[in-house]
Amino acid sequence: MPNLDGKLKPHQLGTAKGQKYGTQATEESRDKRWLFDTGGNISILSKSNADHFELTTPTRYPETWPDPKLAGQPFPGPGPMEIPSGAAGGGIPIRHGVRMCFAVESADGTTQKEVCCDLPVAVADVDYDTIGNDQLKLVGAKILWDPVVGSGSLRERDGGGKPGNLGPSSAIKNSLKPFQKGKATGRKHGRSVFKIKNWMIDTATEFSCITKSNAKWFDLELVAASREGAGPGAAEKGYKEYRGITMHFEILGRDGKPKQVSCSLPVMVKRSGSDIIGMDQLRKVNAMIEWDPTSRTGNLIERPKKEDGTPAAPVQKLQPDRSVKLRRDRRIRVVRSSNDNIVGVAAGTASPNEFTIRGLRVGGPVDVTVSYVDGTSEVIKVLVERANKV
């Protein structure tokens, strides 16, 4: 049961709860949906939302503080706690006193529950309130997000986490963000050049970014004067957009084997920080992300084949009282029919990779949605019709 949606970035309706002047204050985030940010170690509350609550300075530094030596240590004061200059925009205050509530589904995807976190948050002048890796780790959840169709899930962890093509930063020991080693290629003064990079995969960023220190190695062409900030915690707004660089990275193919992909979409150039693969690149190469911030493991995964940016929807024809057994190369979580009076479905009767579709009466087409344990899904249109008489 997908509980995330969005055009490119994952959102979910939820609530922010807390107190102001001793009175319980509850605000439904209908106008400010939570944005789930794999590129954020600390969750962010917008200033406009923070005004609803009585917030205080935390007594300890967050466990994901940019300086690992201070992480989890008592905050000496006096004065406000602020993220130091050069990290997440610099000078951003950290406050305590709001609970972020959102929905997480069970590990098998059959049920869903609300969870709430009261970790310290950054308060910033941003458009979206974001839930970062710190909150997901606290509630024991992972994120699965498909930017091609704009659907995904927050799901309970189902084990220790298996190593994949995503892992933690080698430079920041307490970071919960997903990284992958890859390379950037292009041209400089007419010659081919490449640079080994440690890409950070950011679900809260529509447009991929490179730093100025990386951009100087390539001849880049300006294609757009400005864009809005690349992410909710961006230090700058009005990034310039350039072409002339190709990002190379790895995804897990449909055959279960590593697959090298590349993308040459325009990128933003930012002052400092990580080089970012955004959701535009994943959509272009037809991939989705799975990330577990607790084990700091995950994968970029190749999606089912698509046409014009949408999954293919094959048509399966049946006769009344006839059934067909279909097999896939992935473990099936659940199968649903959009009209149980015309088409019946059953999954896992003989194998976790098989399901059965049965025609009950003439009609259709009926959408049968097959959801897999890896977070992907596909739609099959079923048409039930009588056999032609000869």
| CATH class descriptor name of the largest domain | Mainly Beta
Strand content: over 45%
Overall 3D shape: globular
Share in helix: under 10%
Low-pLDDT runs? 228-236, 307-312
Main sheet properties: 5 strands, antiparallel
Q: What is the residue-averaged pLDDT?
A: 84
Q: Count the helices. How many?
A: 4
Mind telling me the C-alpha Rg?
23 Å
What is the level-2 CATH architecture name of the largest domain? Beta Barrel
Structural class: mainly beta
What keyword list fits this structure?
globular, Immunoglobulin-like, five-stranded mixed beta sheet, 390 residues, Cathepsin D, subunit A, domain 1, five-stranded antiparallel beta sheet, mainly beta, single chain
Give an overview in words.
This protein is mostly beta strands and 390 residues long. It has three domains: 4-156, Cathepsin D, subunit A, domain 1 (Beta Barrel), CATH 2.40.70; 179-302, Acid Proteases (Cathepsin D, subunit A, domain 1, Beta Barrel), CATH 2.40.70.10; 313-384, Immunoglobulin-like (Sandwich). The protein contains four helices and 34 strands. The protein has helices at 47-50, 133-139, 212-215, 279-284, and strands at 4-5, 11-12, 15-20, 23-28, 34-36, 44-46, 82-83, 92-95, 98-105, 112-117, 121-124, 130-131, 141-146, 151-156, 179-188, 191-201, 209-211, 221-227, 239-243, 245-252, 258-263, 267-270, 276-277, 287-292, 297-302, 306-307, 310-311, 315-318, 323-327, 332-337, 343-347, 354-359, 363-372, 377-384. Strands 1-14-13-24-25 form a five-stranded antiparallel β-sheet. It has a five-stranded mixed β-sheet with strand order 21-20-15-16-23. A hairpin with a 4-residue loop joins strand 33 (363-372) and strand 34 (377-384). Residues 228-236 and 307-312 have low confidence and may be disordered.
